[in-house]
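Protocol step 4 of 5: obtain the predicted structure for the target chain.
Materials: sequence only (see below). No template structures provided, no constraints applied. The aim of this step is simply to have a reference model before the mutagenesis design in step 5. Sequence pasted as it appears in the construct record:
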Amino acid sequence: MNPRMKLLVATASVLLAAAGCQQPQQQTPGLVIQERTIAIDELAARLGLRVEERDETFVILRNSSNTVLVFTNAGGRVFINGKPIGLVGPVEKAGATIRVPEALVSTIRPHLLVVAPERPTVVAPPRSATGLVVIDAGHGGKDPGTMVAGIDEKHLVLSVARRVAALLSQRGVTVVMTRQDDRFIELEDRAEIANQRRADLFVSIHADSAPDRSITGYTLYTAPGASQAYSIAKSISAAMATTGSGTRGIREAEYKVLVLTRCPAVLVELGYLSNAAEARRLQDPAHQNRLAQAIADGILASLR
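Step 4 output (structure tokens):
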């Protein structure tokens, strides 16, 4: 934990200790209504935050403008940018899963500072666009990709890739998919499909994993020094920020599908299947639609 986080946690702990001296109020017996709860990861996603750190007594949620500290012990409080805003309420813990009242969404949201838009911001895409885009669903066939808790990356990314292709086709873009079913295709062949068709853009779609299961967020990759691809990646990344997912930035890598294509090429990691909450979101058809729409919007903006 960095020094600023330690200071926030320490300050909040002092305030909590002072508040704990008050005598509890007597409760009048009556009808008990079960409060609706959500996972802490869903709370973060709905507020445009990411889970940055957690331990037995607190969780830290962050974005570029806000730090939210949620104490998960009995009588815990919520602190936003160092200021207490109220009680968390009943907290449920089951293994690594933490559930809090859904009402926290409306409690926290009014106190958050507006996040400055990423530059360049994505403007409304044109009603139609021209060009040929190759959409590559990663892995396939004998190569399942990441396999976590019964989820195969190859199936998930094909579902999103098909959605992206359909959205682009509706806007007048010519789309070629490297695979439309569960088959294995060599990496060199995927790049060659784009080269033979003289594509304007190649976009490869994947899902990530990490030993640290707390890591979440989407990541974009381009080949080293590929300035045009980097500009397109920024457009796609800015559009994906509207889905509620956190971002892990744009990185350079010498992946074959990026360095062997002769047109600009971008690889999108949708999120981390190793994180249980993010894996559930990635399986949700509604969230897949949001991701596909964002990727398509970023592509369309780059084809203007």
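Step 4 remarks: The CA atoms of residues 44 and 147 lie 25 Å apart. The first strand starts at residue 37 and ends at 39.
Proceed to step 5.
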